[in-house]
Design a protein that fits this description.
By secondary structure, the chain is mainly α. It contains 6 helices and 3 strands, in the order H-H-E-E-E-H-H-H-H. The longest helix has 16 residues. The protein starts with a helix and ends with a helix.
């Protein structure tokens, strides 16, 4: 979910990412194919760089190359991402009551990084703040 929020990628771009699409370290970025199969390079934040480095240090699941695989090593479906998001929103709503009345979708995540102060505060409090109002 951090990758979705901090890169603004579309759901189809996220589920289509391979491990090789991520460049860690100096000039860290993610390369993806967006609408119209256009290649797009998105710089990533220091926090996402560290998180993805730890993720990539884990051995791949199965023999797949998907960045975000299922337990069997295949690509996650858009429905699986939406299910996980709903699960995390339910958990977050226990500490952020305003989330209970919001419809949070992958598309909302795509635009949530536009809130002022996002990188200066914790992801959970900023996500809550970015969905209020």
């Amino acid at each position: 979910m951090l990758t979705a929020v901090q890169t603004g990628m579309r759901l189809s771009e996220l589920v289509g990412l391979d491990r090789s699409a991520v460049t860690i370290g100096t000039g860290a970025h993610i390369r993806c194919f967006g609408k119209g199969r256009k290649e797009r390079t998105t710089p990533i934040t220091r926090m996402l760089n560290v998180t993805l480095k730890a993720w990539l240090d884990e051995p791949p699941v199965g023999n797949g190359n998907a960045l975000f695989p299922t337990v069997h090593g295949g690509r996650m479906s858009p429905d699986a991402v939406q299910y996980l998001l709903a699960k995390y929103v339910l958990t977050a709503s226990k500490g952020c009551s305003s989330l209970r009345s919001k419809r949070i979708s992958p598309h909302v995540l795509r635009h949530s990084d536009r809130s002022p102060g996002w990188r200066r505060s914790s992801p959970s409090s900023s996500f809550c703040a970015s969905t209020e109002g």
